[in-house]
Amino acid sequence: MARSNRPVNPASENALDRMKFEVASELGIAEHVRSSGWSTMTSADCGRVGGQMVRRMIEQYESTLK
After folding, report:
1. Which of 7, 8, 14, 23 is least enclosed by beta carbons within 10 angstroms?
2. Whole-model pTM?
3. Degrees, nearest 5: CA angle 63-15-45
């Protein structure tokens, strides 16, 4: 069975992109991303953005459990 890169919930893709740019702006790299794109970012910068996104998603999920 072939793997698909399509999200299970297509509406989540826009929300994740918004979160990604929000985190990038907090880290001070949003302008570089807008001008050059994600493909020119270092692995470290992309990892920082991804790490912050995961932290936020975990916090959001935990707040729904309370």
Report:
1. 8
2. 0.79
3. 90
